[in-house]
Write a structure and sequence with these properties.
about 600 residues; alpha+beta; Rossmann fold; five-stranded parallel sheet; 23 strands; about 20% strand
Amino acid sequence: MDSPYPEFQLRLPYNGPVARGQLLTEKGTNGSQKFRVSAGSPVRPEEVPSFPATMKSSHRLRESLRADGLIRESTTWPGYLETTEDITCNSPSAGAEILLGRAANGYTEWKTADGRPLADFLKASWYGPNRTWLVRGSNVAGLDLVQRLWLPRGLVSLAANHLREGVEQGVSKDELRTLVEEDYESVLTYSQRTHLIEALHTFLSRMKPGDTVCTISNGDLYVGEITGDVEQVASEGGRSNLRRPVEWRNVGYPYLDLPEALQQKLSIQHDVVDLTSVEGMVAGLGRSDEELAEEVEEADGESSAELAALMARRELKLPEATDDLAKELLVHEVGWLQELRDLLWEDRQIILYGPPGTGKTYLALRLAEYFGGGPEQVKLVQFHPSYSYEDFFEGFRPQEDPRTRDVAFRITDGPLREIANAAAQEGNRHIPHFLVIDEINRANLAKVFGELYFLLEYRSRSVRLTYSGDDFALPPNLFVIGTMNTADRSIALVDAAMRRRFSFLELSPRTEPTRGLLRRWLDREGHGPESADLLDELNSRIGDPDFQVGPSYLMKPGVHRGDGLARAWRTKILPLLEEHHYGEGIDVEHRYGLASLRAAISSADTNAPA
């Protein structure tokens, strides 16, 4: 059987011997081009553990060939097996799998003597790395085509019931746009036609043999490999008239057990979705770390899918709280910090609330830097009454073109999208990133968060954005710490939706770690306890706990030099209380002034039992 293609080679792991084979023009049972492994090719003697379960057909073929003597111990390469006759397989991947004893992408594994992959020689193939796709088929005009058609017959399809016949693989998007506008003008809306053009162009012109394809059915994710070109056929109701052959794995992976970042991508509601950004998570399904590491080592670093899978599995962790951290932050016990850390890990979002001067912002920033590994992973934003969604996430803003100097409105990222993009980058997903929102209750939260409110609670989902139209999800490694000044607005006024999405942790002069913070600071800095006694007496006279004064006002070196304490009391603390009692006719100086407080403390000391 002659072939118009060159001879292809496949080197066995660890710089082993080289197998040879030929791509055939004849089609296999599912429409992919057959591949002939040449007689005398070396065969790896062992199989990886996942091979029998995930690639049952290739495993059965390999076992059958060994039983029939077509694969036997090699006399040429000690320690290897070898083929005794030419073996014709249904696809290049199947040919590679019987030689390697593991799942393999034959379109990249088989190469010419000068290193060009087999995929480069296929009709209408496009250059570049293989990609990973999601194609939906569980509800096509009410039918689950995955179970009825795709898995049993080894294919993936796309409905194009009004698209004219003869549309060729590799058609450009411009050509396709013209065809869809003409063929679907009276059938679909403009928006629906736009989505259809994207799906058809991907299926016809971007997908290629060797790409990974995924689909969801009955709560499971199924994974396969595209093995051939597009075929346009007649089908009942036009439900599956565009088809590609696929070698599906023999197992489904429960959706709820998938990594969160993969679930986010799978929740995008399009018929065809590019999953390449999470291809490592797909490549690693059903395979152990040891198996992936071995395959990367075997390929001498060229096994990009397996390497991506290992990188995607790098564990996201928040460091544990330590005694040293508690000592640095002057927190009374490390258990309080550990509880805060655990709340962050479980809920991803917390709010530190309390009166002014309790160290909320300082603590939020310092903990974010500690848990994130440095200031590079932390972004601070301060809310105010005029703050909006466009400021916070994305919106149109005037920007000058550096070349023409013309000013135009362009979509610009806000701080949340910037830190989310950084957290979602390949190689960053195991590193915690933090957004610190200072004075979070001073803005109209429903207006600022918009559709992102949903994502704060449902981290495994994605939403369509208002301005850019992109599908967006909050990365699993993005944490949010908000601060709330209760003197500005009581926590009781925060709406139920906000309370449900955040854990709330109080910082109050009534309770630790704030209550004893000033005394611990004074002791560390070598100052006497007078200012701590004065603050305790002051707060005992303030009836509303939301307006008690925090220790931060007095935790500055200048306060403890010369008349610094009197100056801080006069310029920072008394004006705060003047505002609190405005219109009540209270003599703030008489009630809260240093002379009054010192007299009370002196009297208490005099009357204290000996």
